[in-house]
Amino acid sequence: MKIQTKAVHAGDRKRHCIAIPVTTPIYTASSYIYDDIEQLDRVFGREMEGDSYARYENPTNRALEELLTALESGAGALATSSGMLAIQYALQAALLDRRKHVVAANALYGATIRMLMSMFEPLGVETTWVDICDEQAVEKAIRERKPGCVLMETISNPLLRVGPMDHIASLCNESGTALVVDNTFATPMMVRPLELGANIVVHSVTKYLAGHGDVLGGAIISDPGHVETVRTLSRTGGPLLGPFESYLTMRGIKTFPLRFERQCRNACEIAQWLATRPEIERVYFPADPNHPDAANIHRLFPEKLHGAMTSFELKGADRAGVFAFMDRLKLVVRATSLGDVHTMTLYPAMSSHRDLSPKQRERAGIRDNLIRLSVGIEDTADVIADIEQALRG
Ligand SMILES: *Cc1c(COP(=O)(O)O)cnc(C)c1O
User: Fold this and answer.
1) Fold match, 3-253 / 256-392
2) Is 304 a catalytic residue?
3) How close is the Cα of 142 to the center of ligand 1, in Å?
4) Whether CATH 3.90.1150.10 fits 256-392
5) Which residue of 12, 159, 166, 206 has the fewest CB atoms within a 10 Å radius of its CB?
6) pLDDT class for 12, splitting at 50, 70, 90?
7) Is position 182 annotated as part of the catalytic site?
């Protein structure tokens, strides 16, 4: 055999040995071979289970998808290469056989708002924006607009509002509307929307699930009615997460419950400490007994888990004052994203809400002195000491 032939044939395509690896290997193959072409024909025709082409399925992804399905009590899952792609395909699946109208929470993640306005609207999908915490407004919008789907986040960014997801699920089920929930901030540790009657759950696995700041990825977990639709769209469009990222995400999820419990506990401590500081005007945290959505929080979330995000307003600070405070932080990481093992901070007026005019920001309750904190797994004494020295200036 010549070297050019060896280079593409030697070593590869070995049958697995009889032992089972304790963790799922990274399968990078783009296609698969069978003993005879008859079998491949049956796999292509989906009469026989098996892998054929990496845009259709991949064994590493399948392991992660099984894990995600179990975490969210779904009927099936799809791992995608970003959280935004998960939202795009979830909306397409929800609207495929339904009226092309979305009722969406007006406090959605910035890129999700842009996706509805600049990708879906030009294709004829209209959006009605509602305050998702106002149950009567949601009911009225569903009755009047007859949307194909309702899109909401479990916990909003950065003001951490919590809508009545269970009640909205009932309204949706009664009217044949699909409920799509972005559960990134709450995670399946706090609530599993499919158990409450939602139809499709999406995640940015970039955040808590992968959890280490080294993966960009998303997930769609569906009820039995939407699994096939999502899979069929995915086979055509190919939004799949790469096998390396699937492996990293699976590895991350193994410690996700431990990390998340610790992060929630740390966030609670830090939010309570922030509330005692004279330099701070206001703290947003779901465990606050005066939270406007306390009833929903009490009903939907476990007693000790209130999420690991907190936001606060720096008394009397303008944009320059906030920047100076953030630049004085030495331990807390000044970066976009959230849910990582390290504590991170971000200025919403500069990032997620950058495209809004000051007036629109004011209306959305995002003031120029508002800072968002994603709490990590460090010892809180170190994080508090860092924030304290930055507050002192
Ligand atoms: C980050 C995020 C997204 C987008 O996910 P990517 O992985 O960045 O594409 C969507 N929704 C929420 C709530 C997020 O925090």
Assistant:
1) no
2) no
3) 26
4) yes
5) 12
6) confident
7) yes
Catalytic-residue membership of 62:
no
Instruction: Name the residue of 206, 216, 248, 338 to mutate for ligand 1: max ligand atoms within 8 A of Cβ.
Output: 206
Nearest ligand 1 atom to the CA of 218 is: 7
Concerning whether 207 is annotated as a catalytic residue, the answer is yes
Give nearest CA residue, ligand 1 atom 6. Answer: 83
Tell me how many degrees the CA angle 61-154-290 measures, rounded to the nearest 5: 150
Per annotation, catalytic residue among 145, 161, 192, 207: 207
Of 10-14, 294-298, 317-321, minimum mean pLDDT range: 10-14
Q: Which string of DSSP letters, residue by residue, matches 107-176?
A: T--HHHHHHIIIIIGGGT-EEEEE-TT-HHHHHHHHHHH--SEEEEESS-TTT-----HHHHHHHHHHHT
Contact 390, 382 (CB under 8 A): no
Catalytic residue among 182, 223, 288, 340: 182
CATH classification number, 3-253, choose in 3.60.10.10, 1.10.3720.10, 3.40.640.10, 3.30.70.1450:
3.40.640.10
What is the model's pLDDT at position 362? 84
Domain boundaries, the chain: 3-253, 256-392
In the predicted model, is pLDDT for residue 17 greater than 80?
Answer: no
Q: Could you tell which of 80, 119, 184, 187 is best to mutate to test the pocket of ligand 1, judged by most ligand atoms within 8 Å of the CB? A: 184
